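Q: Now give one record:
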Amino acid sequence: MSKTGPHPTLADVARKAGVGTTTVSRVINGGHRVSPRTLNRVHSVIEQLGYMPNQAARILKGERTKTIGLVIPSIADSFFSSCAEAAQEIARANDSLLIVTVTNNDPHVEMENLNVLMRHRTDGLLLAPANYQSESLAEFLGRISTPVVSFDRPIAKTDVPSVVADNYNGARIAIEHLIGHGYKRILCLGGETTLYTMRERLRGYRHAIEEAGLPAIIDMSVKDYKSAEYAIESHLSASQPPDAIFTLKNSTTIYAFETLQKLHVAIPKSVALLGFDDFELASTLRPSISVIQQPVEDLGRIAAEILFEQLFPTKKKKHQLGKKRPDQVKLETRLVLRNSCGCNPTSN
């Protein structure tokens, strides 16, 4: 049988517990200046009545909503879902709810999501920007007083602190490793050229290739499996085909692997493959896929920690941020050697 009566109010709790509404409010907000006996009695009445604080009323009074907005490109992508889980653990530890919104890397959807979160008065924002150079995003964040921390990608022309992986160095190390195997025609395959991560990885590729005096072979046309398949087929049919492929994100790595398998191209005997970003099946595929591995959980966790340090500045800080230009926390990546690059995994 469903309950149809009115929700119990703070006044109901106070009346039944025999205390004032101010005392009940203090209990709800941590129990400061309330005796243990009264604290237990009020908690007992709250549980008995099933009282829940009125969130709308708390917002109107300017109190914390105990919510954090997370704005990410996708929840289907294991990278961002892992970041979300790590951020959620920190939010829960700080008695807050994580509200997740998805942009699909569309700046217009991103702005819509941010406006909705602001209307809900979220206490803070964790953001992986669709376009890190967006002037409209920078202007929006400059107008609001809500604390913001970006992760995976910084936000240009703002003082927003960021937590990123060392994309440039990771890509450079990957290419140097392939060059060490003797590969001389290394195709860099990717897409989404407006993304900070793609640009940094491309910069690392160029640096290593130029230092080795090798030709830069770059194709940033990949949007989906079909476009990846077309790009790879085109390069393999050229007069001087690549002897190795460096893919700039995990989905592109999967597309490349499937295409090479479909074309019966032996990996790594005919074409080596090394991807940026690890993925769940990378170690179990045959051949297993060598990758640059990012500290995914650390990206989400540290970003959330920094956000709550801004919300609770009296707490001990693990990451000190400057006032005018906050530090960018840059996390190291790791080269995971498997079979697809020409290494023997049994020797690692």
In short: The radius of gyration is 26 Å. The CA atoms of residues 69 and 117 lie 6 Å apart. The first helix runs from residue 10 to 17.
